[in-house]
Amino acid sequence: MGAMRAPRRDKAGSRDLTVLAVPLYFATMAAEYAWLRRRSARLGPSAGAYERRDTVASLAMGVGSLVAPLVGPRLLRPFTPGRGRYGRALVVGALGAAAVTTVADRVARTRSLAPAAVPAVGDADQSGPDRTEAAARRVASVGGVAAVVAGGVAITTTWASRTTPERLWRRRLLPDLGTGPLVVAAAIALWDFVYYWDHRFMHTSRYMWAVHVVHHSSEHYNLSTALRQPVAEAFGTFLPFGALCLFGIQPGLVETARGVNLLYQYWIHTETIGRLGRPEAVLNSPSHHRVHHGSNQQYLDRNHGSILIVWDRLFGTFEPEDEVVVYGLTKNIGTFNPARIATHEYRAMLRDVASATSWGERLSYVVRGPGWATRHRAETAETAETDATAAPVATAGASANGSRPGAVVVGA
To answer: Residue 407: what pLDDT?
Structure first.
């Protein structure tokens, strides 16, 4: 489900539908809670049950998703390249950090391959990582993180400022199509199509997953889960929904389409509704979306649709609900703290960037999928363990012929 942005009016004066629906959210959650309590008395608790701390966390994230669009743009505007007073400095800082990191990488790599000097008789033991190499690794660790953060902010703020509905409307390719029923239907369908690709991208690129993972972090699944919304959308690069404006759809209709789509997504976050039969061939449903929230291997990165499930069927990401769904992440974070829920993936991603030893590895940690990062960490740990096992042999060889053990990656 997309973010519940702060209430606003379009040019026609209409209000944000998702905010107008807030009383409905609480009324339906109360009804679901009462129904689940009666069912649990007969059948025992289920993964759809409300857990107080989990529900509070979800509601807190929902409030955060309303506040973030009010605060985020104001804080980031001065750092937007081409628009803010510090935009150029941000770009220069990112490029400078990248240059320093590149030099440090080369120094560390050169030192790791250079033969060590043979110690004189009576000298202290010289085995272990070269001091110059270790210092270069530390510089690269800090510089790599700085370059990724500064560069990421520069890219995302620039993209957001250049893809607003109002800006794209002024550059539209087709004339104003008006506000008739067919245009409204087209706006909703096209918004749904763009949402499918954005949602799919959020599951296949880690910096986008860091935005979206908030919504998947609960191990429960009920209507409150729908309100557990991202607060860091400013740090994503989404296919712009404003692109609809290029084809003559008014910005106000784009906002209306967004509201309709997000309201539809609210009711599918529940275990109280089973399968719906034939409509599920076309429409998204609670059953289809339960699959999307599953951490079961067969359910990962499936059923990305909003209103329509046909996009998943067309593009090969559809999976029916079969085995019992296990909700949450493949590695759950074990916290109800909203700040940790919102930031845990960013912290993990930047730790990985800090441990990387090349730009290929750093960028892979950011833009490739979260699954790649997990596999790569495991492979790196296995290699380090193998090197550690072989270290005594290498050390013995150094005493004989002057070679030295393999490089130690600082911060890994």
So the answer is: 35
Confidence of residue 276 (pLDDT cuts 50, 70, 90): very high
Question: Residue 173: which residues within 8 A CB-CB, separation 6 or more?
Answer: 246, 247, 248
Distances (CA, A) of 341 to 52, 112, 146, 153, 347: 16, 39, 23, 21, 11
Answer yes or no: do 215 and 307 share one domain: yes
User: Both tokens of residue 300?
Assistant: 């990962």
pTM of the entire predicted model:
0.87
Average pLDDT for 131-136:
95
DSSP string, 223-270: GGGGG---S-GGG--PPPGGGGGGGT--HHHHHHHHHHHHHHHHHTS-
Q: What's the domain range around 395?
A: 377-404
- The number of beta carbons lying within 10 Å of the beta carbon of residue 34 is 10
pLDDT given for residue 402 in this prediction: 38
The number of domains in the chain is: 2
Give the domain-ending residue among 291, 321, 339.
339
Same domain, 274 and 217: yes
